Amino acid sequence: MINIRSFSRLHLFLLSLGILFSSFAVTDSIDEVLSALKSGNASQLAKYFDTRVDISLPNRSDNFSRNQAEMILKDFFASNEVKSFVVKHKGENAGSQFCIGLLQTKNGNFRTKIYMKQKGNQQVVQEIAFQSED
User: Per DSSP, what are the bridge partners of residue 112?
Assistant: First the structure.
């Protein structure tokens, strides 16, 4: 015969493990996006793009397809070689994640904002913005 109390404890334990592991997966997504940003790797960054992405650059802002957004960021990183990225603030709210930081390039610094949202079973980048600090 199954002991209800033991069953409840097991159920609670398994539920806790599921929540714990899913929270690590969410954190990994934004950390992988930040890693791609730190290296100026548009192709790696594009792996996390939604089907359409809002891109804001000092001279251009629009909503682009994943492929267009990747090409635009490749051009941006080619013109602005990344030296480093410093996270100023990172957080999450209702299944969405965001990060605000400073992208330091050979041509100047850019205040950077990244917004990710849960879509299905993964976090996707829906918005990335670079605002010139100089």
Answer: 101, 130
